Amino acid sequence: PVLVVDFGAQYAQLIARRVREANVYSEIVPHSVTAAEIREKNPAAIVLSGGPSSVYEDGAPSLDGEILDLGVPVLGICYGFQAMAKSLGGEVANTGLREYGATAVTVSGTDSVLLGGQPAAQTTWMSHGDAVSKAPAGFEVLASSESTPVAAFASDERKLYGVQWHPEVKHSAFGQAVLENFLHRAAGLPGDWNSANVIEEQVERIRTQIGSSRVIAGLSGGVDSAVAAALVHKAVGDQLTCVFVDHGLLRADERKQVEEDYVASTGVRLVTVDAREQFLDALAGVSDPEQKRKIIGREFIRTFEAAAEALVLEARASDGDAEVKFLVQGTLYPDVVESGGGSGTANIKSHHNVGGLPDDMTFELVEPLRTLFKDEVRAVGRELGLPEVIVGRQPFPGPGLGIRIVGEVTAERLEILRAADAIARAELTAAGLDDEIWQCPVVLLADVRSVGVQGDGRTYGHPIVLRPVSSEDAMTADWTRLPYDVLAKISNRITNEVRDVNRVVLDVTSKPPGTIEWE
Ligand code: XMP
């Protein structure tokens, strides 16, 4: 793989995605990684990410300098570029001039390996206070900006490269070309990683992991679990039984879509468990978001365990050898990284399929999507022949409507939210906006009431929040500018058709600082 060393900002994931967009497989490793650990992974190339620190700050993440001596091509970006310069004997100085945002750069190395084929004057996206003031001996300076004499450097001989700007950000006009030059030209990587390889590789891996054992998969109705289960089904056929837990936190019609559409398109064996009461009981009296997430995660696993036990008993009765040892989960790469797995970044939310797992769980996990981003999962799903209604579906969190009711979850509140959500989704689809929005959580502020008037009477009802967002991977997002007439229609219908709701409000916050879900 290409290893992306994470120096602690959000950039590492973006870099990993862009590398994959160049059809080269990439993985993120924490900045504490040692040269020995890197050697063990036998990477084809290394990218050092940007980060929030100054290389001279106390406690600034440092770079194991031996990484630069491994003979593996390295590209340093922003902080990674400075860390590299410092480690190689160059100079990094606080110029007192911050460059932030769109910045003009003059490229002198227009026939270099790294910046070849690029215009001499270009706009890049910068975010830094320190700057490299002197390149290390033997390095050629390839670009500069007004406040940065050394904005890019290279040693073709040592295959070490660096840029001060962020090529992974779309605002850097020729950013992707920098990455592609590094990967294809400097490191000589062919760019042959695609969904067909992913499927082939995962099928092989799944077969090795599962052997002749039995496996169950939880279907949530969402894209991830559907694709994960389809992959496992391709690998081990009817050793797989899919379990769909109706936890009562589903959207309208979701159960029917899984029981009918998905089964028809894949041929998987499906068991539906009605656990609506169990979940409501477990959630009674709880309004803290993290606690809700943990409870939902725990009940999920317990439900699977019970379903698995039933399968074992049933199978024992028929063929004698039927241990159900494995559980499939549609965990994605951002879940792994956001839950603090692998990068040392802060735990922002306990995603129910990672951080919320109980310690006494008895299944071994099969997570064939653990290294993939959402758009890559969709591509795999399409390659597997899953229908567009499933593959193109907007993301829906595992804890479902449970984390879209701010306050305690009750049957009555779920019914209100389900009705409002169905209206919003129907109107957004009718307006042809599904492709423009990444997802549109509909949130019930169950503990908030406001005064309204309807007919001749005073009402005292709850607000519903619409949270339409546009995003590439849910790591960052912006609120979607929906047409006013669509918003008006949704608002009208919800306040007229859903009891106890007398107000509809629009969430106009990007991520960060807001997350996509309210809890
Ligand atoms: P946030 O709210 O963290 O959400 O900005 C990012 C994306 O993740 C989804 N999400 C979850 N998905 N289990 C999941 O499977 C969870 O616990 C969970 N929490 C949030 C959210 O819908 C958005 O797409």
UniProtKB/TrEMBL annotation:
Q: What class of enzyme is it?
A: ligase
- Name the pathway: Purine metabolism; GMP biosynthesis; GMP from XMP (L-Gln route): step 1/1
Q: State the active site.
A: C78 (nucleophile), H166, E168
Q: Which CDD domains match?
A: GATase1_GMP_Synthase, GMP_synthase_C
Instruction: Give the catalysed reaction(s), semicolon-separated.
Output: XMP + L-glutamine + ATP + H2O = GMP + L-glutamate + AMP + diphosphate + 2 H(+)
Give the UniProt keywords, A-Z. Answer: ATP-binding, Glutamine amidotransferase, GMP biosynthesis, Ligase, Nucleotide-binding, Purine biosynthesis
Instruction: Report which superkingdom the organism of origin falls in.
Output: Bacteria
Q: Name one GO molecular function term.
A: GMP synthase (glutamine-hydrolyzing) activity
Instruction: Give any Pfam family that matches.
Output: GMP_synt_C
Q: Where does ATP bind?
A: S220, G221, G222, V223, D224, S225, A226
User: Which residues are in the GMPS ATP-PPase domain?
Assistant: 193-393
> Which InterPro entries does the record match to this protein?
Class_I_gatase-like, GATASE, GMP_synth_C, GMP_synth_GATase, GMP_synthase, GMPS_ATP_PPase_dom, NAD/GMP_synthase, Rossmann-like_a/b/a_fold
For this protein, what is the EC number?
Answer: 6.3.5.2
Q: How does it assemble?
A: Homodimer.
Its annotated function is as follows: Catalyzes the synthesis of GMP from XMP.
Designated name of the protein: GMP synthase [glutamine-hydrolyzing]
From the broadest rank down, the organism's phylogenetic lineage runs: Bacteria, Bacillati, Actinomycetota, Actinomycetes, Micrococcales
